[in-house]
Amino acid sequence: MTTAGVRPRSGRGMRPGPDAPRGIPAPRTWTRLELLLAGLLLALAGTAWLVTGALAMPDMSSGILTGMRPMGGGAVIPPTAFGFFLLTWVVMMAAMMLPAITPFMVGMRRLLGARATTGTLAALTAGYLAVWGVAGLLGYAVVRAFEATAMGGGPLAVQVGAVVLLVAGAYQFTPLKRWCLVRCRSPLALVMRYAEPTAGSRFGAFSVGVRHGGYCLGCCWALMAVLLAAGVMSLAWMAAVAAVITIEKTVPRPTLTGRLFGTALLALGAALLALP
């Protein structure tokens, strides 16, 4: 299947097995330019990790599952710090998500060929991160709700955290999770359908990045809720959640892997409810 003006390059890496991400070339087949692109994205991710560590407020390294404590004045995140939270959130998403979308970006470059300019790839990445930036609005509201719960003290905070784990674990088994994960792992249909707008303008590429980001958000929102409950700006918890997301997007048997993660979250949530 081809789209006018955009023909996938033949050769190794573009014929994956039945469980492999479609449209993403195997790393062993990447050209030097594609390796350079991957290195650039990973370098940006590394920089984002460093910036996140520098920007993160100390009290945001814990959540209702890990001993969240209000700052003076009874607020973990003052309303005036909303812009700062959103900025840190976007940087944090870049740190966590750029490694996971690196194979996708390499696949996009290969499928678009010479029409995959630097501006096109930058617009795709910006569209992807824009989705997660908007998600930060809800993330801020959730953290504020967790903060109010933590201020009440008692076992309620642990119980709320346990419910977050149970919801996240249950979501791993839902058809919506699988539907989003398939499209997040296999962007070939998205690329072929929107190849012309992607290659035709930066706005078109941005729009496709938004679509891909939407699939990723649908796939990962529950894991992000776990991060909010564990410590939204904790580098350790960020690394753990980012590892889970990357594994889900790259391993040969994503359904089995997702169910294993779901089972672990369900077991942990049930244990917290039984023995808070």
Automatic annotation (TrEMBL):
Signal peptide: none annotated. Residues 1-17 have a biased composition (Low complexity). The keyword Transmembrane applies. Residues 1-25 are annotated as: Disordered. Keywords: Membrane, Transmembrane, Transmembrane helix. The keyword Membrane applies. InterPro entries: PpoB2-like. It holds the Pfam family PpoB2. The chain crosses the membrane at residues 35-56, 76-101, 121-143, 155-173, 221-245, 257-275. This is DUF2182 domain-containing protein. It comes from Streptomyces spirodelae.
